[in-house]
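Predict the 3D structure for this chain.
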Amino acid sequence: MTTDQIEAAYQTEIKQADTDHHTPTAGAMAGHIVANLNVHITKLHQAKWFLKGPASAAIKPLYTTLIARARQTYDDLADVLLDEGQLPPSTTAEYKTYAMLDEDGRLKYHDTETVLTATIKDYNTQNLFVTRAITLAKKRKPACDGRLSNSDFWRE
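Done. Predicted structure below.
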């Protein structure tokens, strides 16, 4: 592609993303999920690294598992979007725009219970997008619906 063709394709992508996010589609919701997963992977690492207290040794392996599942779901869902002709968020700026999870560097100083509660809250937030994406996908995107509906990640 020439520089002009690349710029035209990128401007088309930006316009489509703006349209999709003002008129919810399964692809737009799945894009939010991808962005949320990107942020969530970082947050899960933060939790694992900074857990404190006697329970932390027992909880850290759970976070290792959650990180692995989140990474796999992140990659799998991006592949589904690409298979459906959608473009998943792929830059830090896009993740910041589309992710709906809050980050706070102070969380590392909190007790284990507070960190676990924050993790649960993040899963609840993500489930809102997953539920909406499944509903929208059933209408138009069967491959996306199947991946979202059958993901072990969301059933844990």
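The helical segments are 3-22, 26-50, 56-83, 92-98, 112-140, 142-150.
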